[in-house]
Amino acid sequence: MNVEQAMDIRQQKILAALENKNTSVQFDDALENEMILNMGPQHPATHGVLRLLIKLDGETVVACVPELGYLHRGYEKLAENCSYHEFIPHTDRLDYLSPLMNNTAYVLAVEKLVGIEAPKRAQYLRVIISELARISSHLLGVGALAMDVGALTVFTWAFREREKMYDIFELLTGARFTTSFTRVGGLAHDMTPEVKSAIQQFIDQLPEKFNEMINMLNTNRIFVERMDGVGVISRDQAVAIGMCGPNIRGVGIELDLRRAQPYLVYNELDFDIPVFDGGDCLSRYYVRVNEVKESIKIVRQCLEKIPNGPIHANEPKKVLPRKDRIYTKMEELIHDFMLINFGVNPPVGEVYHAVEGSKGELGFYIQSRGEGHPWRLKIRSPSFMNLQATPMLVEGGMISDIVAVLGSLDPVMGEADK
Amino acid sequence: MLTTVVEKLKSNFPSGILDVREFRDETTVHVKKSDIVSVCTFLRNDESCQFDYCSDICGADAYTPENRFEVIYNLYSIPLNHRLRLKVFVDESDLHCPSVTSVWPAAEWPERETYDMIGVHFDGNKDMRRMYMPEEFEYFPLRKDFPMMGIPDSIPLPRK
Q1: A239 vs B148: CB contact, 8 Å cut-off?
Q2: ipTM greater than cut 0.95
Q3: Whole-angstrom Cα distance, residue A47 to residue A409?
Q4: Interface test with B, best of A248, A376, A384 (most B CBs within 10 A)
């Protein structure tokens, strides 16, 4: 039956009902027809500008096609036209919920290409900022997920904690959102004792506040039943479709690049990898919750273990010198001039370096031709691959579960669209 | 690094493996275009390779007269915890490449993105639409001859 025929039947029913003065017209055919629904790009539950085209049979989702590109800014093209240092501010805008993580991931890839390593203190600091970024991102992930399924309180509580983190980021980097904190071979600034005590203070009070938040969700029957058994994906499907991060750990696969291919100083730290094997929204939520607890553990250890020392590698031709020395020392002035004007100039080659970002495997593939700017830079964004699983997760389910599934996938469109 | 994988590939595909390169402990294997699906199937199924996870697929424009485009496959093995990179050359005269979606369903979107950005068409991918750019856009932005500032009027804007 096509739409016109359906409309005719409806029209006839209404006319017949008017003649009979019968006010209770039954449209039994309305839900039997398949309906196409457009969700987004401007929709609060799509976490940005994701557009979903949904084919519905009644309330059941028959097919779902995600459409991306509404936030495409062409960062890969921009990267080919700016130097390695100039690209660092662009990485802030990829996953804008954890810019410090992206900064770290990018410079690690460049450092691998150049062949240098940051000193121990810088590495510990990078772990601290990465884990703080992960906490910040997961707080929003959990809060927004709760909001999507109808619990607004948790969202505001999560934002209260994130607000404290932004204050710390401001103290540390000078910016709340767009931090651009890392440099090739080091960091922009060192951590002052003031920042250290602020982080310590934040970490000490977070578990209590976080448990308060989580207890409210975990003991909420509406929340748990809304998530339990919704958006299920099997182990094999999840691997085949390329899911990553907390989502793949939610199907029972212990894949965490911090443990599998340790970078920075993660092999010196003691932490667990939370794995849940339900494969549904609730498992993905539990993974995030437990990861926040592990991240707190990691930050605490780093604050104890962090050594004193330089935060820049001793590679004058590759690492930007400190500002006060540029003004007073001849050598540093020359190096600064060369680095700013001609760039880092890594050797000819190609590298792929991936870190365990807050959303999953965040990788940078860089092709170098020995110039100051990358010949080709590809961002392997975790949200992009996670979103690819959306049709698998929502097809066959109810339309109202789509928001729960999207919330539990925790995509960030800045990263998926690049 | 990865000597067993490379040896196995060389013995199973004597004419399909063109070159093997090593840089910063990463192995890049250049594969003949017509053999890419069988090489990928072998890499996924062989028990000493087990590349079950397709991390990423991307394209690059080498801007050379021959073999202008490259398609790069970054693979990862979850059980064995190793990485491998495959590379396929695509000439400008024949912008087609076999799709590996039959091996890894995850390849679908990255292949669409590669098509969108450099214009290599993947035969066998069921949904070969553009990933990011509008469907009526006629250029491929990550080609080196596409200017960074864009081409005026290439995307029609709504008039008042």
Answers
A1: no
A2: no
A3: 10
A4: A376
Judge if the upstream peptide bond of residue A41 is cis by omega within 30 degrees of 0: yes
For chain A, the farthest-separated pair of C-alpha atoms sits apart, in whole angstroms, at: 98
pLDDT computed for residue A22 by the predictor: 63
Position A32 scores a pLDDT of 59
Q: Is residue B47 a contact partner of residue B62, using CB atoms and an 8 Å limit?
A: no
* Residue partners of A6: CB distance under 8 A and separation at least 6: A29, A33
**What would the pLDDT profile of A207-243 be if each residue is shown by its tens digit?**
999 998 899 888 888 888 888 888 888 888 899 998 9
Distance in angstroms (rounded) separating the CA atoms of residues B4 and B27: 12
Cα–Cα distance, B69 to B73 (Å, whole number): 13
Residue of B nearest to A367 (CA): B60
* pLDDT tens track for A102-117: 999 999 999 999 989 9
The domains of chain A, with CATH numbers, are 3-67 (no CATH), 83-417 (1.10.645.10)
Mean pLDDT estimate for chain A: 87
Radius of gyration of chain A measured on its C-alpha atoms:
25
Whole-structure pTM value: 0.88
Non-local (6+) Cβ contacts of B36 within 8 A are B73, B86, B88, B97, B98, B100
The first and second tokens of residue B154, run together, are 């290439």
A241 lies within 8 A of chain B by CB: yes
Q: List C-alpha distances in Å: A39 to A140, A391, A415.
A: 22, 14, 20
Q: Classify domain B3-94 at the CATH class level.
A: alpha beta
Q: What is the pLDDT of residue A288?
A: 92
- Closest CA relative to residue A71, chosen from B132, B146, B111: B132
